Structure formats: structure tokens, C-alpha cells
Predict the 3D structure of the following.
Amino acid sequence: MSVTGTFITDPILAEYTDEAVERAGLDLQEITGQHLISIRRSVGFVLARWANKGGRQWTFEQVNHLVSVGENEFDLPVGTIQVQTAVLRRSAGVFPAGIVTDTEMYPISRSDYLIIHDKNLVGRPDRYFVDRRRDTPSGANPVRIQYWLAAENNTDRIIMNVWKQIQDPGNAQNTIDIPFRFQEAFVAALAAKIAQKWKPDRFIALVTESEVLFKEADDEDADTAPMVISVNYDRFYGRR
């Protein structure tokens, strides 16, 4: 007996829909066009709810932004939700050659950014504020980074790990922007949404199952590096 040697398990949206409909207890033969429109709407709500649970490993992207002298803000790519970490990258030679050093930049609040007395003061940027604005139907960048100090040269780069929305599936022949680890959780969550509308007696059981399956996938998807917590007492007490 032989094995395939392949690892591709990537159902299209139509297959996810069929599986979720069956789990919800509906007959596929009775599904109408109106059902399908409603189910596609639910797909978007499932993915939006997952975004509120925080970033998943596959949704992270690294942004590499080359600054210009006097600059103190820029837009992040469409679909960005939040910034995880940021560094200022400075090279002693022509990038990427030469000695490269990364210095951590610290996030600050909207209020902290507002009270900075001179936002155009030039120097080495060391902090940033993530201005998350309302989403726009046109896809314009709703997330803007405002940083301080303003850039002092044209060679520094701001490197950010950002997490982004899960992409919309589009039509029924497209795949979902999720890895195989989350496929079962997605089907279960969609089945619960379907049951909530047309099989309410099955809703509690299905939504409970979907939460369990999501937690299993999310636990496996976690960063496995050990977490280290330290306190800089000199910084805390104002000493340098």
C-alpha cells in the first residue's frame, strides 16, 4: 500500500458550505439561492469574529518601510488590524550591506502622542502610535502609524510585524484564507451560524463544538518560544 506524498487539503467555499449545512441538520436538496446568500454573509461574520480573537500565525506580515527626512507618519497595508512589534533598523553602510542594528520602538497611546509638544522634532524614532480608523469600502488604508521622533535621515527603516485580516473568500469556487489546522474549526463555526438561523434546537451544541475546535487549533498555532518577562527598574524610577 502506498501513500500520496502530498499534503494539500484546501476545500473551496462551496465544499465548506455543503459540510456546514449537513452538520447543521439541513437537507442539501432544500438549499435555495437565498440560503446561499445568507450563508456567504455568515462566512464573513465568522472570519470577522476570529479577527477579534487576536492575530493567528498565518495572518502576520512584516512591513519594511524606508523613511525620509522629517517624516513622522505613514500608512500600513490595506487589511492591517494591529501592530505586534516594531524596530528602527539602522545600517552603518549601504543597506542591506554593512553593520545593521535594530532598536525596539515602543507603542504609545493616542493621548500620549497628542501631548508630544513638537511632533516634527527630528531625531532617532523610538515610539509610535497606531491610529486605527474606520474601515472604508474602497479599501483605503484605515491604519496609520504616527511615530516620534521624526526621521533624521533617508536610510533608516521601520520594520513592523503587523497582523492582518483574513482575506474575503469571494465566490464559491475560491478557497478560504486559512491553514488546514483551522479548517475543522471554520466548518463548525459556520454550521453553528446556519443552525442559529434555521435549526435553533441544534445551535447550542454546535456553537459549543465550534469553540472547542477553535481553541484546539489556536493552542496548536501559538508561538512556541518561551516568554521572558523582565523589569527595568532604572527606567521605572526615572534613572538613566
In short: The two ends are 69 Å apart (CA to CA).
